[in-house]
Specification:
The complex is a heterodimer of chains A (about 240) and B (about 110).
Chain A: H1 2-35, H2 40-50, H3 53-62, H4 69-79, H5 82-90, H6 100-106, H7 110-118, H8 127-155, H9 165-181, H10 186-202, H11 208-219, H12 223-234
Helix pairs in contact in A: 1-8, 2-8, 6-8, 7-8, 10-11
Chain B: H1 3-27, H2 36-57, H3 70-86, H4 89-106
Classes of the chains: A mainly alpha (about 240), B mainly alpha (about 110).
Chain lengths: ~240, ~110
């Protein structure tokens, strides 16, 4: 029991910024899903089982479109592809965590990845349980935030017209954060440029997958160039 | 969509997400180094995907009719200013969203 209290106590302070952020975006998500015309149970199912913030917003909009599971699967694989790289970076760190490893992988959202890959865990705290509680707390903040938002929206009625912009705002901020962190903006600019081009050519319904393929095609030959630039900057 | 189709759609998103999370642990072992091309994609792909998400969320704007995308552009401009100024994710999201809601609820185009 001490092991758990100890790990939880160490993990909690790391998650406080996430508590603030997830409550806010979670509440907005719950309201957003409600504004699209879905009951709280949809918010619960999506926030709990998908548990990948940006994909949940996209999933809610997919429910309004035509039924096409193959398209949905490809879109999810492409948009969540970054998780592959989180996984690769965590291969070493998740080693020896026993049965918890399954949950650590299942619940690894962007924020839990950042904390678990950067936190300095004191030697008297169980590493596996620390990462477990970081993951669990973050998941709890997100799901409860989303449910609160969903219930508020179904009880209090106010004009939610324009609330769907919260998704755009979230993506713009994620993009800006990345932009401010990077030395060279090749990938970010390719992401915007190729997407706009694909949108014009293929239209709003089907442009995402061609856009992803074109990005891979453009980025691959730039590999040496982008990597060299990085090396130069590090010196 | 029927209820069943909705659940299949959500289930497919869950499946896709679970695949992206578990696959590395299934194919790569921690003992062997990760192939350089995969490492390169790990660095280069996320920024491009973030750009795609921005455009995805704006895909239905029409610049030729309606409000011509002006409320979106103003709100994104505000997000950029607030974010560079305070670097606070929640403040940036909240100010952009409220700005957008105010514009489209109180100004008619």
């Amino acid at each position: 029991m001490d092991k758990h209290i100890n790990a939880l106590r160490t993990a909690f302070p790391y998650t406080i910024p996430i508590l603030a952020g997830f409550s806010f975006i979670g509440i907005a998500y719950g309201m957003y899903v409600h504004a699209l015309g879905f009951e709280p149970i949809y918010t619960f199912i999506m926030s709990f089982f998908i548990f990948a913030g940006s994909m949940e917003f996209v999933a809610a909009t997919l429910l309004l479109g035509e039924f096409n599971p193959i398209y949905v699967l490809f879109l999810t694989l492409m948009l969540n592809g970054r998780h592959l790289f989180y996984g690769i970076s965590m291969l070493e760190r998740f080693k020896g965590t026993g049965k918890k490893k399954f949950y650590l992988i299942y619940g690894m959202c962007d924020e839990s990845f950042v904390i678990n890959s950067t936190a300095t865990i004191p030697s008297n705290v169980d590493r596996g349980w620390f990462m477990f509680y970081v993951t669990l707390l973050n998941m709890f903040y997100w799901v409860s935030g989303a449910m609160i938002g969903s219930f508020i929206a179904s009880i209090v009625s106010f004009d939610t017209k324009g609330l769907d912009f919260v998704m755009t705002a979230l993506f713009v901020v994620i993009f800006l954060d990345q932009w401010m962190r990077e030395d060279k903006h090749y990938s970010s600019l390719i992401g915007i440029g190729v997407s706009v081009l694909a949108l014009i050519i293929f239209g709003p319904e089907y442009f995402t997958i061609p856009a992803m393929i074109i990005m891979l095609v453009i980025l691959t030959p730039l590999r040496g160039h982008i990597e060299n630039k990085k090396v130069v900057n590090e010196r | 969509m029927t209820f069943t189709q909705e659940m299949i759609t959500i289930g497919t998103v869950v499946l896709g997400t679970v695949i992206t999370r578990f696959l590395p642990f299934i194919i790569f072992s921690a003992d062997k180094p990760t192939p350089p091309y995969i490492q390169f994609l790990g660095n280069a792909l996320p920024p491009a995907v973030f750009g795609l998400l921005v455009i995805y969320s704006l895909r239905d704007i029409s610049f030729l009719s309606g409000s011509h995308g002006i409320p979106e552009l103003i709100s994104i401009g505000l997000i950029i200013i607030v974010h560079y100024w305070k670097k606070n994710m929640f403040l940036s999201i909240a100010s952009g969203t409220i700005c957008y809601m105010l514009i489209i609820q109180f100004i008619s185009f």
